[in-house]
Design brief:
- The protein is α/β, with parallel strands linked by helices.
- The chain has a single domain, classed as Rossmann fold (3-Layer(aba) Sandwich), CATH 3.40.50.
- It has twelve helices and eight strands.
- Helix 1 crosses helix 2 and helix 3 runs parallel beside helix 4.
- It is globular.
Length: 290
């Protein structure tokens, strides 16, 4: 998970968001300072080390669900380095063998390493700013892979909480302009609704994170997130829940999933009328059109 260059506007940072995310998720591509910062965050807010594995597991279940619904095209915005199998394209291609998957990240180093790792058919990594959907949809790399008139599954995993409200609105509005009916958006987002912690604990963790990375976090309530991302689409069952609670018994995932209640998750269908949504959930896009 990476965000645009804005994380460096506040000067030199001890960690980057991508490296700290990897350290929290037991990844390989980070430094000792990132391990130290991850341990410090876990001490401030016990259980922080469960957030990233829990988020990844939730996104895998979401993508597996999208593949079961027959979606063949995927775009992961702010993907970070796809270095922890099974990666999302591997999940999709287990069900849809010819699924096409685009990873998008703004970090040149992430993209360079990502392209070296991604050797499979139908998988591409694009260096682009997730805040500028219009520019992304004009790139040859995307247009050579994605058929814009067909449903696409867009992954927004742990990225929108780095965007201002206006930026989130713009991203979602531009996505809805481009995405065909029957497309899905998959969102996980850090939330300020934290019943297990005192507000001062959450604030201390946020302050430490921002100090170490230079990136600003926008923690939102579930209602605030819904108001930003749901206009233009209809949430699928079970709606907004914690990442741990999003279809935790889905057959794709093993029983050994770390349970962390710190991120909220929702999958939503684009421009599909409520009265026909049940057909899309149960069948194909063609059935939904009938």
């Amino acid at each position: 998970m990476s965000i645009p260059e804005r994380e460096h506007e506040h000067g030199s940072a001890n960690s980057t968001t991508a490296r700290l995310y990897g350290a929290l998720g037991y990844g390989k591509d980070h430094f000792k300072v990132d391990q130290t910062n991850a341990a410090a965050l876990d001490e401030i807010l016990p259980g922080m080390r469960l957030i990233v594995p829990g988020n990844r597991a939730c996104l895998r279940r979401m993508v597996a669900t999208a593949a079961d619904l027959g979606i063949r095209q995927y775009i992961d915005l702010g993907s970070g380095l796809p270095d922890q199998p099974p990666n999302l394209h591997e999940v999709a291609q287990r069900t849809v063998k010819d699924a096409r998957f685009i990873y998008v990240d703004n970090d040149p180093m992430v993209c360079t390493h990502g392209r070296a790792l991604l050797q499979g058919s139908g998988v591409t990594m694009i260096e682009a700013d997730a805040r500028d959907i219009c520019a992304l949809y004009r790139t040859y790399e995307l247009l050579s892979v994605i058929e814009t008139g067909r449903p696409v599954c867009v992954v927004l995993g742990a990225i929108l909480h780095f965007f201002t409200d206006d930026e989130v609105k713009e991203v979602m509005e531009e996505l809805y302009d481009f995405l065909a009916p029957g497309s899905l958006v998959l969102v996980t987002h850090a939330t300020s609704d934290q019943p297990h912690y005192r507000p001062e604990q959450v604030q201390a963790a946020r302050d430490f994170y921002e100090e170490q990375t230079g990136a600003q976090l926008y923690l939102r309530s579930v209602q605030e997130i819904a108001d930003l991302v749901l206009p233009g689409c209809v949430p699928l069952r079970p709606g907004f829940v914690t990442t741990a609670a999003w279809h935790p018994d889905y057959e794709y995932e093993s029983a050994m999933i770390p349970r962390a209640p710190y991120f909220t998750a929702v999958a939503a269908e684009v421009r599909r009328p409520v009265e026909t949504r049940q057909y899309f959930l149960l069948g194909t896009t063609q059935e939904a059109e009938q």
